[in-house]
Design goal:
107 residues, single chain, elongated, 0% strand, mainly alpha, 62% helix
Length: 107
């Protein structure tokens, strides 16, 4: 019996967030974008300062380009490439390792 992409995704019995490549990356990208916007909105009226080598507008562009956009591209790629090529998707704990998730272990 041949194993296709959907068979492997359906066989995963762990947390649902690790069943498709887009789920953890889109979630982390959304959290990053919300956090970066909150910092930016607090910086604009002068409530907090952004120390570092970047000007505030450069920091904002860098945070969204390398934080949010990178996560969105990774999630799209990990979902689309197996569908386009017929190769097995990365699911489960290998996917968690690529996203950096530290899920609690249940005994």
């Amino acid at each position: 019996m041949t194993v296709n992409t959907m068979t492997r995704a359906r066989a995963w019995a762990g947390p649902a967030i690790l069943s498709y490549g887009f789920r953890p990356f889109f979630l982390l990208g959304a959290l990053w974008a919300a956090g970066a916007m909150a910092v930016w909105l607090a910086h604009l009226p002068g409530q907090i300062g952004l120390a570092g080598p970047f000007a505030p507008t450069d920091w904002h562009a860098h945070a969204l380009l390398f934080g949010y956009a990178s996560a969105a591209i990774a999630g799209f790629g990990l979902t689309a490439v197996p569908n386009w090529t017929g190769r097995l998707p990365i699911v489960g704990w290998p996917l968690a390792g690529r996203t950096g998730f530290q899920l609690p272990e249940f005994a």
